[in-house]
Amino acid sequence: MKYNVIPGEAVVEIDCRLLPGTTEEEMRATVLERMGPELAAACEVDLVIHAPPVDAPASGALWDAFRRMLVLDPGILKLHLSDHRRRVLDKFAGRLRALRERWGAADARQ
Fold first, then answer.
1. Domain extents for the chain?
2. What tens-digit pLDDT sequence spans the chain (110 residues)?
3. How far apart are CA 51 and CA 13, in angstroms?
4. CB burial class (10 A; 0-12, 13-18, 19+) of residue 73?
5. Phi and psi torsions of 23, nearest 5°
6. Do residues 31 and 45 make contact, with C-beta atoms less than 8 angstroms apart?
7. Rounded to an integer, what distance in angstroms lies between the CA atom of residue 15 and that of residue 73?
8. How far apart are CA 12 and CA 58, in angstroms?
9. What span, in angstroms and rounded, lies between the C-alpha atoms of 25 and 30?
10. What is the pTM of this model?
């Protein structure tokens, strides 16, 4: 590695996933737009790996079983975590509690 030298090129790799309802062309346009016109004109944007977006609806027998499990036994998700990860999980648990309240315990027993 040399110091105080202007490199001949720079490479940036962006790892992103397509959301359902979006296309590779839309993703490319968003990247170029965020780069701005001056930088986008001086760059090449190459697609390295492509896969279609995953559309996994929250419905069906497996989802219903998961929902019943969370409502009937909120303590089922037990993990041993560091303090930082515990705080993150506590935030997630708060969101789960809100979902349980929205779904209701009676609805979960169906």
1. 1-55, 61-108
2. 778 888 788 888 888 888 888 888 898 898 889 889 898 888 888 888 878 888 777 778 887 887 777 777 666 666 555 666 667 777 777 777 777 777 765 454 44
3. 16
4. exposed
5. -120, 165
6. yes
7. 37
8. 35
9. 9
10. 0.46
